Amino acid sequence: MKELYLISKGQPKVPLEAEVIKPDSLAGLSTEEIANLIIYRGNRRVRLGEYFEVKGESADNPEELRIIVEGDVSRTKYIGAEMSAGELIVNGSPYMYLGAWMSGGKIVVNGNVGDFAALEMSGGELVINGNAGNYLGAAYRGNWRGMSDGLIVVKGNAGAEIGSWMMGGKIVVEGSTGPFTGVHMSDGIIVVYGGLGPRAGAQMTWGSIVVYGYAPELLPSFSFNEVIPAVEIEEERFEGPFIEYVGDLAEEGEGSIYLLEEKNKHLKPQ
Amino acid sequence: MTKHMILIKNGFVYDPINKIDGEKMDIAIKEGKIVDPKKVKEKEAKVIDARGKVVMPGGVDIHSHVAGPKVNAGRLFRPEDGRRQVRPFGQGLRAETGFSVPNVFATGYRYAQLGYTTVMEAATPPLKTRHTHEEMSDTPILDQGAYLILDNNWVIMEYLKAGEYEKCAAFVAWMLRSMKCFGIKSVNPGGDENWGWGKNISSVRDRVIYFDISPAEIIQGLIRVNEMLGLPHSFHIHCNNLGLPGSYTTTLETFGLSDGMPISPKVGERSQNLHVAHIQFYSYGGEDWKTFESKGDEVAKYLNNHSNITVCLGQVTFDETTTMTADGPFEYLLQSINKLKWINRDVELETSSGIVPYIYRPRSLVNAVQWAAGLEVALLTKNPWQIMMSTDHPNAGPFTRYPRVVKWLVSKKAREETIAKCHETLPNRSSIASIDREYTLYEVAVVTRASAAEALGISGFKGHLGVGADADVAIYDFNPEKQDPSREPEALEKALSRALYTIKRGHIVVENGEVVGDAPKRVFWADICFDEELEKQVLDELHETFAKYYTVSMSNYPISEEYLVGSTPIKITSK
Amino acid sequence: MPERVVSDVVCPFCGCLCDDIEVVVRENRIVEVREACALGTAKFMSLSVGERITKPLLRVDGSVRQVSLEEALKEAAKMLADAERPLLYGWSSTECGAQAVGVALAEVLGGVLDNTSSVCHGPTVLATQDVGCPSCTLGQVKNRADLIIYWGCNPMQAHPRHMSRYTTFPRGFFRERGVKDKKIVVIDVRHTETARLADRFIQVELGKDYELLAAMRAALKEYEIPEKVAGVSRKDILEVVELMKNCQFGALFFGMGLTMSFGKHRNVDNAISLVKDLNAYTKFIIMPMRGHYNVAGANTVFTWETGFPYAVDFSRGYPRYNPGETAANDVLQNEECDAALIVASDPVSHFPAKAVKHLASIPVISIDFHHTPTTEISKVVIPAAVAGVEVEGTAYRMDTVPIRLKKVVEPPEGCLPDREILRMLLEKVCEIKGVETPVVKHA
Ligand code: SF4
Ligand SMILES: [Zn+2]
Q1: Could you tell me if A191 and A170 are in contact, meaning their C-beta atoms sit under 8 angstroms apart?
Q2: What is the pTM of this model?
Q3: How far is the CA of A257 from the centre of ligand 2 (A)?
Q4: Strand partners, C341
C-alpha cells in the first residue's frame, strides 16, 4: 500500500468541491500532477495544490493507494465521493458529501462529517470517529433507492434522516440518532447504541432497526409484537432481550424495531 | 445574403415525399428554403461535402410530451432523473439537465442532435395551455405545435350528446384559436371525467357518469367536427383501456369508429381521419397480467385493411423513464402496481393527468411483450406511411432512443440480440422472433419524417426536400453504399444519434453531433374561420359556464399571440 | 378627469390569484378596488402612497446617495461578477418573465438561485419528490368536493377568498346548494377563524401532526391505534377517517402548520401518503396553500429551465439541487455565499438571525418597489415597477393554473419592470464575464 498525503494549507470561506480526493482519481498520478488537478471554489476553478500540499507517493492502482488527508477540511465538500477502491483517511472534519455515492474501498474520518455523507452508498466501508450530520447514508432527493450495501460506523452521534430509503447494507451509530432514523427504509440494518431519535422507522416497509439505547417513544403506527431474547439478522446475532415493534403500519409495513428491554421498559405494554 | 445559402453536395438523399430513394444529389438552401441547386452559386454558399453520407429532411415528431404542466410536474418530482444527464452552460448554449424529463433547453438541443426539427406536443389541457406555450417558446431550435385535449370537456360532451355538431365545431374553432393549438386530442374519452369521481371507463360503449355519453359517441363526434373544420391534422386519440391486458379489442373497436367517416382537410394532404397515438400501449391480448400477450399482429392486420388510420408507435426502449399522460385513472393503476411516487392533476371541466416513474426491464415478461408489440405493429403493417416513430416520449422511453428503435426496425439481428436478453417466454407471447422484415433507409425516412409531416397536413413545407420546403435537413454519417443497416445496426444507431449536420430553416444548428446554434422558431396553430354567428351564440352560452363552474374569468381564459415565439397561424376557412 | 374601470384584474398578492377584481383608476391612480379582500385591496392601494423607491440608490461607507440607473447597474454587475458564490433570491412576487431572466443570470454567474418556497412550501416540494402528489385545479374542488379539510392553515386570515371562491361557499356543478352540500373539517393547533366556520375541529398537539397522520393512516388500514394520539382521541380519529373514506370527493388543503412544524417535509409526505391511500376508497386530492401570488410560478419556471424548482446551484455550470445545501438559508447560515441579489423579497424581515447576520456582512443588491429592512442593508437598490399592477406578465395560481397579469396603471417615472432591469443587469454581467448574452425568449 502506497501512502499519499494531502495536507491542508487552510480553507477559504467559499467552500471547495474536491471529489478528486479519492484513490480512483489520484492513482497513477505524480504528486505534481495531483497538485495541478482542478478543484472548485464556488464558481471558480482552482488547483488542488493551492489548498493542499501533496506529499508521499501514489500507486498505480487505486486498490493499492491510501490517501491521508491532514488538517482543516471543514469547507471541503465531496471528499471521497464516488470512491470505489483503496483507502482514504481524513484526519480532520470534512464538510458535506464525504464519501457520497461510494461503492467500494474504505474511508476513515478522525473527526466529524457534515451532512449527506455516504449518500446512496452501494458498497465499501465508512468509519466516522466523530459525529455525523443529517442524511448520513440517505437517498438523494426524490430517489426511492437509498443506500444499498456497505457499512457505515459512527462513533459519535448522527443527525436526522439517516438511512432514508435504505434498501440494504448496515449503519451503526454508537451515539444517538436524530429524527426519522431509517425513514422509508425497505431493507438493511440500522444499529443504534445511544438514544433513538423521534419517529424512527417512519414509513418503513421492511428492514430492521436495533436499539441498545433509550427510545423515548415510537410512532403510533407501530405495534408491539413480542419480547425476544436475541435476534438474528442477516447472519448476525444481536443479544437482547428486545422488545420488538412492527411497522410502519401506515405503509402496511413489516419492518422491525428491536428495543433493548432493559432500557425501554416504558415501551413494553402492560 | 451569403450565409443564408448552403449547398449540400453529393449526399445520398432519402426524401420519400418526393420519392427519392438514396439518389446521389445536391440539396441547396437559400433564405431558409430548399431551392433549385442551380440557383445557388458554390462560391457564395457554404458548401457541405456530403459524399458518402445520408441526407434526409429534418425529423418530424408527431407525438411527444415535451412541454407543459404535466411534463414540468414530471421534472419537478424527479430530481433524481434531473441529475442523471447534465451539460454545463457555455458556448452560447444553456445548461441541460434530465434524462427522461429534460429541461426545455436539453429538449431542443437533443432533438436537434438527432436531426429532428419539428416536434408536436402531444397533449395540453386548455386551462393550463398558457404554460405549454411558455415552455414551447422557451424551447430552442424546434418548430412546434400542441394538441388540445377536448374529449372530456363538459361543453363538448353536452353538445355531442345533444347532437349539436355545428355548435360543437364552432366551440372547437374558438378553443383552438383561443388556445393557439394545432389539433384535437382525445385521451381516454369519458374515462377522465369519470376519474373526477375516482372511476374509469371500461369500453367504448360504457357511459360517462352524469353526462351520459359513451366514448364511441365522443370519438365519432370529434372526428366529425374535425372534418367539418377541415383541420390539417386528423383527430388524434389515446384510446380507452390503455396499458391493460386484452386492450387490443378496445383498440380495434376504436379503429372501427372511424370507418366510413369523411376525410376532408382544408389544408394539407393527409389520408387519415384517425390517428391513434402510441399504438403499442393497447396492442395487448390476454385475460390478465399472467396471460398478457402481444396482439400487434392483429392490430397490423386491421391497419393493412384500413388506410384511413395512422398510428405512432410508443415503442418501449427498456429504460428507466417517467410515464405521464392525461389518462389520470391509468397512472393511478400504474402506481398501485409499481408502488412508486404518483402525481395526479385533474383539470376542472376539461381533463386530468397523472405521472409515475417506471422502469422497463427486458426480464419482465410484461415489459418484453410491450417491446415486442410495438415492433410487431411497425413491422407487420405493410404501408410505412401509416406508421410514425415515437416512444410516446417519455412514456415508453426518452426520445433520445429513436436511433435505437430504428436499429430494431432495420435489423433482425439487432432484434434477436434484444430478444436474447428478454424474458424467455417472450416467443410464446409474441410473433416478434419470426418476423423477417427489415426496414430500408427509405422506410426509416418515411416513419421518422415523411409520414408524420403528411399526417399532420404540413407536408407542403415540412418533411421533404423539394423546392420550396423549409430548409430543415439532417445529414448522417452513414454510407449506404458501404454499410448495410441490417448487418451494422449499431453504426446506424450511432450515426442517427449524433447528426453530422442538422439544418433548421437554413441555419446550421448541429455540426459533428454538437449543437452550435439556435434557429428561428415557429409555433403552428389552427386559426379557423367557421361560423361567426354561431360562434357568438356559443360564446354567449359559455359565459354562464365560466361564471358558474370555472375558477378563472372567461376574459382571462384565451391566450394572446404574444405568448408564442414565432406564432404561425394556419388559416382555415371552414365555411 | 374621467374614471377608468378595469375589470377581471388579477390580484398580485396571495396564491389564490383571484382574477375577478375591478380596479377604478383616476389620473393614473388607483382610487377604488372592488371584489378583492382586504389584503388584495391593500396591495393595490399601497402603491400610489407610501414608501415607494423611485431612484436607484448606492450605499458607500454608510452613506446613501441617489445614482443613475446606469451607475447602479454597473456597480451591481461588478459585485455579482466578482462573487464566487452569489445568491439570487426572491422571485415569488414578480412575474414569470423576470424569473426567466433570473435563471439566465444565475446560470451566467454560476450562482445559487432560490425562491421563497424554500421558507414556505419547500418541504411540500421535497415530499412530492419522495411520494408524489395527487391534486387538481381549484374548480375541480368547487364543482365536486363534499369534504374540505384545512390542515395547519388559516385561509380566513392568509387567503381570505379561498373559501368563498373555491371551496366552501360557492355553488359547484355537482354541489348546487353550496356550503350545504359540503362538510368542512379543520385540523390545527389553535382554534382559528377558519376553525370557527368548520363543521368539525380537531385540535392537534403542537409538533405532533406527523403522529396524527400516522395514526390516521394506520386506522384507515384497520390497524388498532392508541387511545390518544397527538392529543386527539381514538374516537375522533376514527370518525374523521370514516368521514374521509365515505365522502365522494375530498380535498385536503394544508399550510405552514404542516410544512414548518417539527417534521416539515415528512409531515407533508405522510399527509400526501394518506391522501394516496384514500384514493383506494374514494376520490381525494391534496393541495398546498401557496402564499406569495407567484411562488408557484417561480417553481414552475425554474423547473422547466433548470429541471429543479428551487435551491438551484449553478456553480459547476449545470444546475444542481439539494435543499439542505443549496437553499438560500443553507448558503447564508453556512456562510457560503459572498454576494446576494434580492428580487421583490425581504429576507431580512423573514429569515433567521444567523442568515440575516451573514446577509448583512456581504454585498447585497435589491430590486424592489418599496423600502424594506432588506433594502436598508443593500449596497445597491434599484426601484422597480410592480408586476400585476404596473407590469403585465404571467403568474401561476396555487393549483398551477397560469393567469395573465394585467397592467392597470403606469409605473412612476424611473421604475422599470423587474424583467427589464434584470435584462440590463444580465447584459452587463455577460460583458464583464466575456460571454454571449443568452437570449431569454420567455414572454
Ligand atoms: S384572496 Fe388573495 S388573491 Fe384573492 S383578493 Fe385576497 S389577497 Fe388577492
Ligand atoms: Zn402520449
Answers
A1: yes
A2: 0.97
A3: 44
A4: C88, C365
Minimum-distance CB partner of C130 among B197, B341, B521:
B341
Same domain for B378 and B414: yes
- Identify each DSSP E strand in C344-438 by its residue range: 364-368, 380-383, 393-396, 402-405
| Contact at CB, C324 and A184, closer than 8 angstroms | no
Q: How far is CA A255 from CA A73, A184, B479, C274, in A?
A: 38, 10, 59, 19
Rounded Cα distance between B15 and C130, Å, is 47
Q: Which residues does chain A have within 8 Å of residue B81's beta carbon, measured at their own beta carbons? A: 142
Claim to verify: residue C91 and residue C38 sit in the same structural domain? no
- Over its length of 270 residues, how does chain A's per-residue pLDDT go in tens digits? 999 999 999 999 999 999 999 999 999 999 999 999 999 999 999 999 999 999 999 999 999 999 999 999 999 999 999 999 999 999 999 999 999 999 999 999 999 999 999 999 999 999 999 999 999 999 999 999 999 999 999 999 999 999 999 999 999 999 999 999 999 999 999 999 999 999 999 999 999 999 999 999 999 999 999 999 999 998 999 998 999 999 999 999 999 999 999 999 999 987
**How many contacts, defined by CB atoms under 8 Å, are there between A and C?**
102
Give chain C's domain count.
3
Chain A residues with CB under 8 Å of a chain B CB are 140-144
A64 to chain C nearest CA, in Å? 31
Q: What is the domain count for chain B? A: 2
Ion ligand 2: residue ranges with CB closer than 5 A:
B 122, 392
Residue C443, domain member (yes or no): no
User: Which tens digit of pLDDT belongs to each residue from B294-346?
Assistant: 999 999 999 999 999 999 999 999 999 999 999 999 999 999 999 999 999 99
Residue C31's domain comprises 4-45
Which residue range is the domain that position B367 belongs to? 59-148+186-222+238-456
Residues C348 and C400 in one domain: yes
Instruction: Name which of B77, B80, B339, B342 to mutate to probe chain A: the one with the most chain A Cβ atoms within 10 A of its Cβ.
Output: B80
Q: Residue B447 corresponds to which cell in the numbers above? A: 416513419
What beta strand segments (E) does C236-369 contain?
249-254, 283-288, 312-313, 320-321, 339-343, 364-368
Q: Is the ipTM of this complex over 0.85?
A: yes
Smallest Cα distance from B82 to chain A, Å: 10
Residue B170 located in a structural domain: no
Helix axes B154-161, B532-549, angle to 10 degrees: 130
Which residues of chain C from 410 to 429 reach within 8 Å of chain B, CB to CB?
none
Three-class DSSP labels, chain A? CEEEEEEECCCCCCCEECCCCCHHHHCCCCHHHHHCCEEEECCEEEEHHHHEEEEECCCCCHHHEEEEEECCCCCEECCCCCCCCCEEEEECCCCCCCCCCCCCCEEEECCCCCCCCCCCCCCCEEEECCCCCCCCCCCCCCCCCCCCCCEEEECCCCCCCCCCCCEEEEEEECCCCCCCCCCCCCEEEEEECCCCCCCCCCCCCCCEEEECCCCCCCCCCCEEEEEEEEEEECCEEEEEEEEEEEECHHHCCCEEEEEEHHHCHHHCCC
* Contact yes or no for C110 and A42 at CB 8 A: yes
Whether ligand 1 lies within 6 angstroms of the CB of C36 is answered as yes
Which residue among C20, C161, C253 has the greatest number of ligand 1 atoms within 8 angstroms of its CB, and so is best to mutate?
A: C161
Q: Are A83 and A107 in contact (CB under 8 A)?
A: yes
In chain A, what are the domain boundaries?
Answer: 112-267
Let me know whether C275 and C261 are in one domain. Answer: yes
Q: How far is A267 from chain C (nearest CA, A)?
A: 13
C184 assigned to some structural domain? yes
Q: Of C288, C323, C356, which closes a domain? A: C288
Query: Does C11 contact ligand 1 (Cβ within 6 A)?
Result: yes
CA C443, CA C440: separation in Å to the nearest integer? Answer: 9
